[in-house]
Amino acid sequence: MTNYQKIDYRSLEEHLYQRFDIDGFLSLKDLPSPNQLKDMERATERIKKAIDSGEKIVVIGDYDVDGVISTTIMNLFFDEIDIPLKWIIPNRFRDGYGLSPTLMPQIEGYDLVITVDNGISAVDAASMCEERGIDLIITDHHLLPPKVPHAYAIIDQKQSSCNFPYDDICGAQIAWYLIASLKKSLGVDVDIKSYLQFVAIAIVADMMPLKHINRAMVLAGIQLLDRSSMPSIRAFKEHLDRESFGGDDIGFQISPILNSAGRMDDAKYSVEFLTSTNIYDARVRLQKLVDFNNSRKEIEHHITQEAIERVDSDSMVIVVEGEDWNEGVVGIVAARVSRHFEKPAIILTRAKDGNYKGSGRSFSECNLFEITSDCREYLEKFGGHQAAIGLSLLSENLDNFKRELDISYRERHYSSIDIDPDIVGELSFGDISFELVDLISRYEPYGQENARPKFISREIKIVQVDRMGKSGEHLRFAFESNGVILVGVKFKSDETFDIGDLLQITYTINKNEFRGRVSLQLMIDKIIKI
Questions:
Q1: d(CA 61, CA 87)
Q2: How many percent of the chain have pLDDT more than 90?
Q3: CA distance 68 to 438
Q4: Per-residue model confidence as pLDDT tens digits over 233-253
Q5: What percent of the chain is predicted at pLDDT more than 70?
Q6: Same domain for 316 and 270
Q7: Domain for residue 147, yes or no?
Q8: Do residues 81 and 190 make contact, with C-beta atoms less than 8 angstroms apart?
Q9: Tens-digit pLDDT profile for residues 477-494
Q10: Which of 411, 437, 462 is where one domain is finished?
Q11: Any idea of the CA torsion for 291, 296, 299, 305, to the nearest 10 degrees?
């Protein structure tokens, strides 16, 4: 059993403050200039020329939240300056990812193509644009591949020759910077700060570290969301019964709904919702997304259960394949399987041609991109980063891929450690108070590299336990320790507990507001019977 240091109000504040000791607490006035991004001036001049001469411009986005938001803010900006703009988000199932040769029939006759949140690996499509005399501007934030496409301009902060001071920003931030540069060049009166309400959603959804300018932009964006008059945001407030939003609302409520269209059907529906011009259309379009999300949950739950049953628990890296599993949800399934077994997991679905496509999620210290990269000889396509990957492979290479993946993992001597890096210390029930929760709230928003503080408490007794939810899938507890009783909730658990059980629990703390009454509530992560 791992020993954690006792923590109190003062030591918790020191811990949270130290997370920001490099960059400090920045605000919008600290944002770097757009021109610090390589090729920003060149791209801006080319777009201005296209606008001035009436050329036809098309934007190519991506089907995740970052790509949807990037497309949305470009669309809103061009609409606001009254310049025609075509936008395309590839269909995951029909077109594949980003700017690809399959999209060429849709961009024939256009003079300028601008990618947002994609394009840095679109070598073939870039060549096809060049052959057709179409200028290409790539805006992306992903790692550069060994071969970079030929384009009129490439804006990607990960280029070695780029002077932008922050490496981990998302595609919507790059698109926002492009809009800021265009505003200045065109001399138009547009409130680009208002677009941060959307950019904040993308930063959280794309799991960017919530530090430096990312934190500043999210904080500003949340303030704008809270007072937004945009029909789509008003519809979200109605649906979620919220007057204001926090980072958790974005990560666990808004993002899955926006993501669901691209996972289940076509991400264009999310852009159409976000750009709704009246509340009536926004409500109807949001309901369509909610329906997609509900279907996604059902399919994801079914596939997760199937995948868990098929796992070889002796494998260091879990690889599970299935027939006709929805390609749009395998990434979420991989995350759930990874957490369940506390190992990296890759979930594959057999495509129509008999071969496999899928997604993987890492666990703990394992660099999944690195160990999978060792097995490239067995892969047809591969990309991603340390924590998440996408890949495809021929069916005849599957067994070799599984074997080499485990070898690669073992050679790096990763260990299945039981230390949770998000646990900040051992907390006594007597120290849990509204004052403590107010302290925690001062360091919001929480997310990547600024995890909501998690605590551990031992020798906790169950005094009441009930099931809740439509299907009884959640647990509600009353816990007691040294005379202090607190309520705890554990979501999606089929575990069984009895009154009187002694436990060790890990949890976060929040305020629960119900019918005008505010109480403290423990959000349970893990329970171990003593």
A1: 7
A2: 83
A3: 34
A4: 999 999 999 889 989 999 999
A5: 99
A6: no
A7: yes
A8: yes
A9: 999 999 999 999 999 888
A10: 411
A11: -130
Model confidence, pTM: 0.92
The residues facing 389 across adjacent strands are: 360, 384
Q: What is the pLDDT of residue 144?
A: 87
**Range list of β-strands (E), 266-377:** 318-323, 345-350, 356-361
Pick from 392, 411, 430: which residue ends a domain?
411
Strands 112-116, 135-139: parallel, antiparallel or unpaired by DSSP? parallel
**Which two tokens mark 347?**
């979930």
Residues of the chain with pLDDT under 70: 1-2, 415-419
Contact 267, 67 (CB under 8 A): yes
Query: How many other CB atoms are found less than 10 A from the CB of residue 53?
Result: 8
Q: How many domains would you assign to the chain?
A: 3
What is the spatial distance between Cα 318 and Cα 332, in angstroms, rounded to a whole number?
14
Q: What angle do CA 21, 24, 25 make, to 5 degrees?
A: 140
Q: How far apart are CA 120 and CA 105, in angstroms?
A: 20
Residue where the block lists tokens 């160990």 = 371
Q: What tokens appear for 258 in the block?
A: 């926006």
> How many C-beta neighbours within 10 Å does residue 193 have?
14
**By residue range, what is the domain housing residue 223?**
31-288
**Alpha carbon 84 to its chain's center:** 30
Contacts of 380 (CB under 8 A, 6+ apart): 355, 392, 393, 394
Interatomic CA distance for residues 301 and 469, integer angstroms = 15
Tokens of 199: 């950019």
Residue 453 lies in a domain: yes
Cβ atoms 126, 103 nearer than 8 A: no
What three-state secondary structure class fits 22?
coil
